[in-house]
Amino acid sequence: MGKKISGEGHSPSWFEVIFGAVLSMALGVALGAMLLFLRPVTMVKTLPKEADRIAGVVYYAEGSRDGTKANQAAAKRKAFAQGKTVSVTEDEINSFVALPPPPPAKPKPGEKARPAPAGAAAASGDMFAPGAPNFRIREGVVQLGVPVKIDLFGLIDQTVLVVTRGAFVKKGDTFAFEPDSLYIGSCPMQRFPFAAGIMAKKVLANVPVPEDIAAAWPKLADVSVEGNTLKLAMP
């Protein structure tokens, strides 16, 4: 007798079915997130009230960079470096931070590459290259906006705005910025806590901080928002 031949094909196991479903969902989420990454935010001078906002639209109001309102910035910076309590406005904070120097040019054939200067922006070819940060302080909330150039293997080459909002909290012996929300373009990354944490650390790590401010920062006794100012209290 010949062997019995079954007319039935291979039936997928429960593991294969679940794995396939999870993979399909993951690909769908990734594609949806990428589309939101590339959807630009709506720039406004002041944030509209909740009742006036359009569903699905992400609004962004940039912090002030008025140099005429930051004429006390140098004096406050010196006082802070000397261990004194100061209250700074967003104009003054934005005068402290500056755009990192551009990356070094690619060497010509036969030439050696020059090392990148300290604080340089991410070199061409890096997946995420942050630009100049912008701070805004309103109603007890600190907002940080950073334009980030995204380069995904040449398939996507676009600058998107990364916006995070939160407050300063004490972590260990020093104060650090703790994001409550993080948007890449129009994508709410707070819905993906793990990915949001990684992106927030990368963006914050590239915010240029002057050496004298960085040296005095660990001595802080408290950091709080009072009105539209950030109070840096020393012991």
Task: Give structural attributes.
alpha+beta, 235 residues
What features would you describe in this structure?
The chain has 235 residues and is an alpha+beta fold. It has one domain (35-48, 58-103, 119-233). The chain contains 5 helices and 11 strands, in the order αββαβαββββββααββ. Strands 4, 5, 6, 7, 8 and 9 form a 6-stranded antiparallel beta sheet that branches. The chain has a 3-stranded antiparallel beta sheet with strand order 3-11-10. It has a two-stranded parallel sheet with strand order 1-2. β5 (134-138) and β6 form a beta hairpin. The longest helix has 24 residues, at 14-37.
Overall, the morphology is: globular
Helix content: 25-40%
Low-confidence stretches: 22-29, 113-124
Order of helices and strands: HEEHEHEEEEEEHHEE
How many structural domains are formed by the residues? 1
